[in-house]
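Because discrete structure vocabularies remain unfamiliar, we turn briefly to a single example record, giving the amino acid sequence and backbone structure tokens:
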Amino acid sequence: MDLSTAMEEARLACSYFFNNRFEEARALMRPWAHKSMYHGLGYGTFMYLQAIMTFDPKDIETAIETLKQSVEVCNRFRRKNTIGESLGKMVKKVDYNSFTKEEIHAELCYAECLLLRAVLTFMEDETLISFLKGGMKIRACYQSYKECWYILEGRDWSKDADKMHFESGVRMGVGAFNLMISQLPQKILKLLEFVGFSGNKALGLSELERGFHLEGSLRRVLCALVLLGYHLIATYVLGTSEGDLEMAQTILDDHLKLYPNGAWFLFFAARLEYVKGNFDLAIEKYTTSLNSQNEWRQFHHLCYWELMWCCIMSAQFKEAEEYADKLLLESKWSKATYAYQKACCMCMRMDELTPAEKQELSETMKSIPGLKQRIAGKSLPVEKFAVKKSLRFFAQGETLCLSALELIYAWNGFKILAKKYENVEKIYSIIERELKRLEKIRVDNRSEYYYDDYLLAHLVKGSCLAYMNSPLQAEECFKFIVSNEKKIKEDTYLVPNALLELGLLLLRANDLEQSRIILEHAKNNYKGYSLESRLHFRVHATLNKISSLQKGSQSEGTNPMDSYPSISRSPSPCLSKTSGTTNGTGLHLKPTKNGKSISTHL
């Protein structure tokens, strides 16, 4: 099969796929996957997408094997340099016009296959150990994309009508690679940069946007998906800044014209409403995406996951429990996580549970340790957290404090929750009720986990207050956690996270240096706590923001507070003007540049 026909079939398969004709897309690519570079890449991409949808270890393994074959096919068509040519590269400029079209496209397809393998490796282990183990493969990918970049810049394209297909692929790969590397915590970045990797977020986004604007190009839709994934998901789960929602809307407006019933873009349209805090509208749109196809059941699970979060964020705990139960029954990704999420939602309704439901809650919690799995020899951090909390449930008399709100915090949901005042106010009232209940417990009746619960309530309360135009009251909550560190029995993660939140308050007050000091303290002086890697991602993103602001590299007029937006409305009437939180910290305070009191010395 010649190259032009292969690219045309790849374009057709892409159209099938994003119009929900998934099996037709795979069927078009499968027969030639072992002979044609574009068929190999296309089939490998579809298997990769299935793997990231299911997180099933078998699907991940199948995708990796498929991509191995794809890499071998691409390798057969790549330029084979003699020893003399390789040495010549060091002393003179390469003549990329001497490369055939097959050779340059093989180099690009090779790089793309390796990038997909790198992402699969990244997925396998949230602590990134497996990412480092795959370093040599990632390095090969990195070097291959550099070669493609040089080809794009150094070749005469005046007579090549297919330039935009090659260019969109280069911009997608270089952009995605830079974006992925730039999100990693500093300790990983240092290792990667030691072996020649570097990641520039601004460059990554710029290249992806340039690829998206190449209308009619083969990889344009992939640039769109990476941009949507970054602006609507990665930014909110791993970082502390806002996604570019205007860019996301532009992409969706464009691609929903091309694929009006496409499940993927309907899903991202729902996600856009979710990150805006429009939970009811998001539920409608996720349901539309879910109902748009029945061929790929795993996609339904992704929608159930999002619907569950919409319900948790809007305090519809019964409905959230039902979606978690669907995931527990149908999805293979992490049954321990689903079981714990279901149990958390039931705990939030403890006063209204029937005896039968209480028995179901107890049995669900008991099942969690046995549901924990190992991927690439490692347990998922979210599953380890679920197991620890399920054991805690029984240790303190079959109850948990604010368990679903703790999940919101763990998944970095308060910045989304706070987009609408009524959303955060609803959650705040739940926290206040729980704090009053805890404070009524006599000292001699308090459990050994009392301060774990009490300080958790302060963490989520402070997270609400930070968005309710009450930064000083939020500060008191976080300082109270730090000052009571020694009273914590188990939930040691509370202190570094309280420090992170103090650092974000300082950033919002434009005290960049003190923010950096506190964030470095949180990163370097606490080890071995639950979901540690998540905090490191958030700290890394915030330190990058501070560094960028200190260097003056952001455009004039950019507000440094964008990373921690507040609601443009007056505080809730349910808030007193002075916090009821007892300080007693001994932490030293000094005025910030704007005169407000923020904790700066720990």
Q: What stands out?
A: The mean pLDDT is 87. Residues 101-124 form the longest helix (24 residues). Strands lie at 374-375, 378-379, 588-591, 597-601. The CA atoms of residues 85 and 92 lie 10 Å apart.
